[in-house]
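[job 4471] stage=fold_predict status=RUNNING
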Amino acid sequence: MRITLVAGSNRQNATSTILLKHIESILLEKHISVSFIDLAETPLPLFTPDNWEFHENALHLIKSIQNADGLIFSTPEYHGSVSGALKNALDYVSIDKVAGKAVLSVSSAGGPLGISSLTHLQTIVRNLHGINCPEWISIGYGTNTFNEDGTPTDEGTRVRVQTVLNSFIELTKNLSHKPVVSS
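[job 4471] inference complete, writing structure tokens
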């Protein structure tokens, strides 16, 4: 199984990215192959449909998404929506790269929770024909602190992450092993 994680903040040490790195460590412990794209370290030019000669970072993103069995997108919540960096990245991705794949949405907010960003992200995923995981992860103030190793300090957050990841992994397995129907 291959999972591509996209950290959708262009801010260094963003809590949404730290949370995604924690998720990556859990996946690696489960011996799941991971591709991690951090948009703060791999910036993308502003997408325009007038230019289809994509920057090498955009080509890397597209290939990583195409080769994945499942996808995890994280975003900070900015003004009730996803980050511009993540939206721009997803604008590079065509439906055929996401269709039928399990997608987990993860957010971090300066307020209680990033619910608006998650619903917007799930709408984007639906429009790319991805299969939204019925669970999601959102952290807000009080739960967005981490130990030196990147583990959330809040026990409830650690349990929630593990529970949601288990659900996502099961969904990804089920979707990536669909039997081929011949006519």
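[job 4471] summary: The mean pLDDT is 92.
[job 4471] exit 0
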